[in-house]
Design brief:
The chain is mainly beta and about 160 residues long. It has a single domain, classed as Beta Barrel (M1 Pyruvate Kinase, Domain 3). Strands 1-6-5-9-8-7-11 form a seven-stranded mixed barrel. A three-stranded antiparallel sheet has the order 4-3-10, with no helix packed on it.
């Protein structure tokens, strides 16, 4: 059984806008994060079918590995992902439900990086993040998210 933590939250209201760190955000069931481009249908991939673009997650361990293995210092906002986690096996959550605090999310697909990430971040990250680009998820039940909340399987005790 694993248990991790939400360490940071990033949103932007524009498809290619800079990601802003926020202290808390409301997760809206079936929509995404209040104020974020995907909740408003304005994200680059908003026209993609299905629920998979509501919220994105990224592992802090990947940022550490980029520094260790490639001597790259990456601001987590440059990943273009919404929720930064530590201790969470994101690749294993495709097709599974999990909780961030009391918010229930469902992993939909891996969030494989593309050249759009390179363009917006101003760095060539897509090849380095292949299979390490995070997770696309849908919001099953909403609520307030803030750094410090536990991330865990839905059956784990609070």
């Amino acid at each position: 059984m694993w248990q991790g933590e939400l360490t940071a939250i990033y949103i932007t209201s524009e498809a290619t806008g800079m990601m802003d760190a926020v202290r808390e955000v409301e997760a809206l069931a079936g929509k995404g994060l209040a104020g974020d481009r995907y909740a408003g249908g304005l994200g680059t991939w908003s026209s993609s079918a299905g629920p998979g673009r509501q919220v994105t997650l990224f592992e802090a361990e990947t940022i550490e590995a980029l520094h260790r293995d490639h001597d790259l210092q990456i601001d987590p906002a440059l990943t273009r992902r919404n929720l930064l986690t530590v201790g969470v096996p994101l690749n294993h959550l495709v097709g599974r439900e999990f909780r961030v605090g009391e918010v229930r999310l469902r992993g939909i697909t891996l969030c494989e990086p593309c050249t759009h990430l390179d363009k917006v971040a101003g760095q060539k990250l897509s090849k380095l993040l292949l299979h390490r680009g995070g997770l696309n998820a849908e919001v099953v039940t909403g609520g307030i998210l803030k750094p410090g909340l536990r991330v865990r399987p839905p059956t784990a005790s609070v």
